Amino acid sequence: MSMLEDIGGETSLRDLVEHFYDLVETLPEGSNLRRLHARGHGVEHARVEQFDFLSGFMGGRPYYKEKHGHMDVKLMHAHVPIRQADADNWVDLMRKALIAEGHKGPNADRLNVVFRRISDMLVNDMDDWEDTGTRR
Fold first, then answer.
1. What is the pLDDT along the chain (136 residues), one digit of tens a residue?
2. In angstroms, rounded to a whole number, what is the distance separating the alpha carbons of residues 66 and 109?
3. pTM of the model as a whole
4. How buried is residue 80: exposed, middle or buried, by Cβ count under 10 Å (0-12/13-18/19+)?
5. Which of 19, 60, 64, 126: disulfide with 97, CB 3.0–4.6 Å?
6. CA–CA separation, 10 and 59 (whole Å)
């Protein structure tokens, strides 16, 4: 059984992503994540792209790959200055979304471990990133 099937399929994944981004948009710990998304295509775009990516990543239809030709999460975020605090906030908000959507036990634990590994992998050193959203 795939991770996607473990959490209840596409409908459940869509609900999870929506809840996650609702938290990003409303909780204080989502403030820097909101700022980073505002420099890109925005949170609404991120809702779609995250669902598309996670569907394929979790063993479902690879919507992201069908649209973009790859599933390289580091490439997707290469232009984004991600601090450890941002990765920690992302994981914490996703954990809260999982709980709120009723996901618990071994399946949720497994997802939390995977999300932690991925988020830590995306932390980069972009000291030259200016607050204007451009590089020097």
1. 999 999 999 999 999 999 999 999 999 999 999 999 888 889 999 999 999 999 999 999 999 999 999 999 999 998 889 999 999 999 999 999 999 999 999 999 999 999 999 999 999 966 655 554 443 3
2. 29
3. 0.89
4. middle
5. 19
6. 11
For Cα atoms 119, 121, 127, give the angle at the middle one, nearest 5 degrees: 95
Non-local CB neighbours of 121 within 8 Å, separated by 6+ positions = 73, 74
Residue 59: both structure tokens together: 């063993």
Degrees to nearest 5, angle at CA 85 with 79 and 87:
60
Q: Which residue has the tokens 């295509």?
A: 41
The three-point CA angle 32-108-93 to 5° equals 15
Tell me how far apart the alpha carbons of residues 58 and 63 are, in angstroms, rounded to a whole number. Answer: 11
Q: Is 59 helix (H, G, I), strand (E, B) or coil?
A: coil
Half-sphere exposure of 7 (CA within 13 A, CB side): 29
Amino acid, res. 81: P
Question: Which residues are paired to 135 by β-bridges?
Answer: 129
